[in-house]
Amino acid sequence: MEKKEDKKYRNPALCVDAVAIQNGKVLLIKRGIPPFEGKWALSGGHVEYGETTEAAVLREFFEETGLSAKVGKLVGVYSAPDRDPRGHKVSVTYTLSDVMGEPKGGDDAKEVKWWRIDDLPRLAFDHEQILKDGISVYKDSRNR
């Protein structure tokens, strides 16, 4: 019989994604690494040990886009075990506001571009659903 202290736990990795919308456009990155290399995606990445999800989303956004921002609203938590081909990753996703700076690709983003919400490319991972939800949250917060 297996002892309780011998049991190894496999846990999903905690990640964040950013939905940055301004003037009817959303900021996307073109991935420079697998998986989905060359595909467009939301900016995001892993939460580091000791870091809040809010701090992580701002850090990842800056590393990949060169832009600063403020954390807005929680879009949702995305936890499907197959949402990332590298393994089980749970994403906490936020809208970002007050985006400032000149966008430039960095870290694992080879390009950064503002896309009109009504003219979007196909997105990597489950980011089409996340972006759809993010646009709803953004519109709801603007209508209050």
Tally the helices: 2
Q: Identify the overall geometry.
A: globular
* Number of self-contained structural domains: 1
Proportion in β-strands: 35-45%
Q: How many β strands by DSSP?
A: 7
CATH domain class: Alpha Beta
Find the CATH topology. Answer: Nucleoside Triphosphate Pyrophosphohydrolase
Task: Estimate the helix proportion, in percent.
Answer: 10-25%
* SSE ordering: EEEEHEEEH
- Arithmetic mean pLDDT: 94
Describe the main β-sheet briefly. 7 strands, mixed
Radius of gyration: 16 Å
User: What is the distance, rounded to the nearest whole angstrom, between the alpha carbons of the first and last residues?
Assistant: 58 Å
CATH architecture: Alpha-Beta Complex
Describe this structure in words.
The chain is of the alpha+beta class. The chain has a single domain (11-142), classed as Nucleoside Triphosphate Pyrophosphohydrolase. Helix content is 20%, strand content 38%. It contains two helices and seven strands. The chain has helices at residues 53-65, 127-142, and strands at 13-22, 25-31, 40-41, 43-46, 68-78, 89-100, 109-116. Strands 1, 2, 3, 4, 5, 6 and 7 form a seven-stranded mixed beta sheet that branches. Strand 2 and strand 3 (40-41) form a beta hairpin. The chain is globular and about 55 Å long. The protein starts with 12 loop residues before the first strand and ends with a helix. The relative contact order is 0.27.
